[in-house]
Every structure is written in structure tokens, then in C-alpha cells.
Amino acid sequence: MPGVKYDKIYKELRRRIEEEEYGFQELLPSEKVLTEQFGSSRNTVRRAIGQLAAEGCVQSIHGKGVRVIYQRENQAEFVLGGIESLKEAARRIHMDYTTKVICFTELSVDEKISKRTSFPVGASIYYLQRVRYVGGEALIIDHNYLLKEVARGLTPEIAEKSIYEYLEKELGQTIMTTRRKMTVEKNSQLDEKYMDLKGYNCVAVVTSHTYNAEGVMFEFTQSRHRADHFAFYDQAQRVHA
């Protein structure tokens, strides 16, 4: 399938860029070279490069090629325009991470949960609380609400590895779109109990609604991050007339 091919090329090129096989300000190999390397069409290679450009990793230079503009940051780094799990983000920036599930239950959505998450009243969901350790420190607490009919068979053991990997590889789900809101809030009792807050009295909060290929909202998540280890990156281009 062309989609699978594109995804593999994108991930491999991203790996090469992040591991500095293609260094900052260097040009990528030509489309001709890449199509030969991957045994794919030029359109498939262009789609992979387009994804890298959208994430701020490369920039096309007219008449010259595609230049690497990615630079590694020291803080925990997440891409605002993309959808990735913590496992994928940690692997990408070469940081050790572990996850501990501190709550796992099944619920029927009531009016209060529906107002909070946008799931319909009566829907069956999984509710999880997960503490995320990055570099040995408890930096993030995730509150995950997942539609049971989409994430069927989810267990705490799976959630401590990667929910998205399970959904995609085991259940054949395609994760398509996410809508995020970022705010700053005072610490909750749960934050203070489980996170290494280092004296900070507030956390960065990312609230997201995520949809699959059928347009079904299957996940609502609130991720609470320690302030000094939080950074979200976006990329924009100025439109010239």
C-alpha cells in the first residue's frame, strides 16, 4: 500500500535527520537517489518529505533541493503539528522513559464526563491515570479516556507500553487527527502526590481530542507536565503574494 510505503520512508528519513546522518543545513539526497534507495515513486518520496517539512525538519529550496533545518533541543520536545505517543517522542529525542499506570477502570459516560470529554452519555470508556517518567523523573501525569469499542481489549500492561502502538498494530486502527488546547493550571493534589514538581506550583496542561480514520473521536486526554520540562514546537511559513 502506498500509505505504508510513505510512512516507512518518512520514519527512516526522520531517523537519519535526528541521528545527524543528514546534518543541520545539509541537503538531503536528490529525489532520484531516494526513489532508488527506497524502491518507490517520486510522489511517495515527495509525500514523506512534505511531512518532514510540515514538522519543521526540512525546507525545500528552489533550484537546490531540500535542506535540513532540524536542531535538537534539550527539553522534552513534542511536535505541535503531529500526533505521536510519548514512546515515539522519547525515542525520537533519545531519552529514557517509563510509564506507571496508577488507575485503570471502565466507566459509562455520565453527564459530567460527557461535558468534560465530549463523549456521548452512555458510551463505555476506559479511564486511566498514567505517571510518565522521563530521564528517571516523574514529569507528566496523563488522564486518558478511551472509547472502549475502539480500544477494545486494552489492559494496564498494554497502557504501560504504548496505547497507540496497540491500536495501530494490534487493532488495525488509523489515528488521523487531534485537536489540542494548552493552558497553565495550579497543581492538583494528584500532581503533588505523584510528580517530581521541584517546588513549582503550576503545571502545563495539554488537552486533546483525537479521531480515527472514520472521524470517530476515540480519545480524550489531559496531560499535565512539569513546567520546566515542557516545550511544544510548531512551524509556520509566511505566505508571499
Q: Average pLDDT, to the nearest integer?
A: 87
- How large is the radius of gyration? 20 Å
Helix content: 25-40%
**How is the main sheet built?**
6 strands, antiparallel
Within the largest sheet, what's the order of strands?
4-5-6-9-8-7
Overall shape: it is globular
**What is the H/E order?**
HHHEEEHEHEEHHEHEEE
Task: Identify low-pLDDT runs.
Answer: none
Number of strands: 10
SS field, number of helical segments: 8
Distance between the termini: 37 Å
Structural class: alpha+beta
Strand content: 25-35%
Keywords: DNA-binding, Transcription, Transcription regulation
Protein name: Trehalose operon repressor
InterPro entries: Bact_HTH_transcr_reg, Chorismate_lyase_/UTRA_dom_sf, TreR, Tscrpt_reg_HTH_GntR, UTRA, WH-like_DNA-bd_sf, WH_DNA-bd_sf
Organism: Candidatus Egerieimonas intestinavium
Report on the architecture of this protein:
- Residues 3-71 form the HTH gntR-type domain.
- One of its GO terms (molecular function) is DNA-binding transcription factor activity.
- A six-stranded antiparallel sheet has the order 4-5-6-9-8-7. Strands 1-2 form a two-stranded antiparallel sheet.
- The longest helix has 17 residues, at 2-18.
- The radius of gyration is 20 Å and the shape is globular.
- It is α+β, with helices and mostly antiparallel strands and 241 residues long.
- It has helices spanning 2-18, 31-38, 42-54, 86-92, 111-117, 156-159, 163-170, 189-194; strands spanning 58-61, 65-68, 77-79, 97-108, 124-134, 137-147, 175-186, 202-212, 217-226, 231-233.
